[in-house]
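Q: My collaborator sent me two sequences in one message, no labels, and asked for predicted structures for both. Can we handle them in order? The first one she listed is below.
A: Yes, handling them in the order given. First sequence, followed by its structure tokens:
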Amino acid sequence: MESPLDLLTELARRYAFADLGALAPMVVPEAVLIPALCEFGQRLLTLDAEDFATEVDAKTVPSALRRRARDCHMPQTAREQPRGALTSLRPAYGLLLEVIQIRWERRELSSMMAAVHIAAEYLPLLAFEPVLGHAGDPARWPEGLRAEGSRFGVIGDRECDHTKPEKSAAERTLRVALEPPEGWRAYFDRQHSQLSGAMATCVAKCRRPCTAMDWIAADARDDLALRCKVALTFADTPLVRLRHAAPVGHGFGVPSPEEVLDAWTRSRSHLDKNDVGRQSCRDDGFPLPGLPSLFSAIAGSPISPATLLADVAAHLVALIGKAAMRGAGV
């Protein structure tokens, strides 16, 4: 490194937002935009979806970056607008793929496995998006879920294949839009991922179907069932189960890159049973080859790794460059 500013530039290029935000004031005290932008980037890198669109100074973060982050933001009330990730999960999955790629390159494998786990939990809602017209927004559920003869959300119904947590989540999701913000946030913290699995069960593996999913057009049901089946299969693959060997699971070990790649190879063989799951076997240039192709197939729409974090890093590099040219603050 030729200078402290070169070190800051390298930190930005390595997505070391927390370190950069802490060190920048020591090197360029007047560069007040850098720590705030680093905090924004760190929220994205850690997938803090509650805060993507909050407490961001419009003068600190360019509007284009804020807008793209807001697309991945999880609304904190039932009436918050825009609806962010409840409108579509595709931008959020693009960010997840970018985070997985960055964590792999930095060999931060426990954090990478946490991102893979999050992706697995919400894949069924990604599959449902084309038929719902949204990404599982409890304020916009179709009335058909409550149709006569529906067992969706009926606590204690022994004919329903949902687990107890899934039944509880299904019952709650039908009324949570009327709850105060505290209840809304508690539901998303604890139950929305269970609801995602419950929806997939209804269309892909229910042994005694009720009328809850009769609102889905007949010509869309088989395709949706297949995509949900693959989403459920992914959640039970060796790759996702590997999280239990990491600090984000129940153990204290961190998987090695070799263990991750081996688990993904075995996972691809589990998935290679139909046209949707077979997309995981494509070589699409991703560190876990085929993962973007698999997510795209489940979504029924192309999903590629985002460039949001890369663009935050590039903007930081530009700010540091201006500081170097002026020899003063940004």
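Q: And the one she listed second?
A: Here it is, processed independently of the first:
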Amino acid sequence: MSLDTAAQTPAAKPHERLASFLADDLVAVDTLIRARMASEHAPRIPEVTAHLVEAGGKRLRPMLTLAAARLCGYGGPYHVHLAATVEFIHTATLLHDDVVDESERRRGRPTANLLWDNKSSVLVGDYLFARSFQLMVETGSLRVLDILANASATISEGEVLQLTAAQDLATDEAIYLKVVRGKTAALFSAATEAGGVIAGADEAVVSALHTYGDALGISFQIVDDLLDYAGSADATGKNIGDDFRERKLTLPLIKAVARADDTERAFWVRVIEKGDQRDGDLEHAMSLLARHAALDETRAEAMAWAARAKDALAPLPDHPLRAMLVDLADYVVARIN
């Protein structure tokens, strides 16, 4: 698709405009993903992988890699390898997360661990991590390998930190940010940074792309956590209060707990730390969030991170893709305006 056509294509959402602009690259990524998720000896691997890969996800992370590379003028083939790598890492973490969280639904469908079993989900996730490293090596770039290997380790650290922090009222906003940077933002920033590196962009541009991905990922996760209390089931695919019922100490609760009096703190200890939840507890939690303006402040933080993402793009070349990335940051927070 030409630059002019893609820039003028009317699409309801920025990620759809990105997909339209990057259509040929995305076809190549999907072809590569299908080829590399095959297994001659274990047919369950492509079965489990296809269930998740083809479940209708937006392909946001691989699109960030493709967009970053194209924005920096890359004309070679390896941005496709990196985009497939990012999608494999993301899919592997989802398979593992659903086992850890004992989830039963993902993107509106039964999870792989429910349809098959936990062992299959964990082992197929491991297989996808291995495939992702094969794809990285094929690019011939040690720096790209370093970026994505570090991101994979950071994702695991973030998930393990969340295990210990999620139900501990001592968890503060600094710890929350470490969790979010690990489990969400690390792959966003690696996706954008790797795209710049494979294109041979100068250090200022590579740094800007990393900052954009980091801030976008943090905003993305804060919005998800906010919508658990301020969204609608139709819009999010989740029931309001799922995080509360799962005793996850996300940013809105952290803000309310920090301002709790003794009576309120006793409530949070009972429902989050001890897991003794009763009828009416969610409604009471919502009233405490309102009393301490926790949702409004969480919304403001999500907006601030989105603004930081947009500001980071200033050193990048003037290009239709840069405008789309700016719009994408706005779109991430549009659901909470």
